[in-house]
Amino acid sequence: MAAHPEGWSAKHRFARIAPRKARLVIGLIRGRRCNDAMEQLRYNTRRGARFIRDVLKSAMVNASEQEADTGRLVVVDARVDDGPIHKRWRPKDRGRAHPILKRTSHICVTVAER
Predict the structure, then answer these.
(1) Degrees, nearest 5: CA angle 36-76-113
(2) Which residues does residue 102 pair with via DSSP β-bridges, in sequence order?
(3) Where are the domains of the chain?
(4) What are the residues facing 89 on neighbouring strands?
(5) In the chain, N or C terminus with fewer CB closer than 10 Å?
């Protein structure tokens, strides 16, 4: 990813986790120093923490490739947007079918030097 005026970003598009569940974790790292955010995600037991940790690590690597000081990096933007929904059908009793919605997310993390 390229350097933006507001920092360096990384995305994980079409992540197979519901946005509602990923947003519970992304709120923990918004505004924190990157090293603190990585520690927070490393010990979080929620499944979304692994997805977000990988995206944050990628954003930090993007910044370090542009000779940024990795000790001064801060998470300036962290968001989870809705992705497309895979619609499936579950057979039920008496010939009925109920919808199953497999939701996806677009996870975006931006870091900058402060």
Answers:
(1) 75
(2) 86
(3) 7-113
(4) 99
(5) C
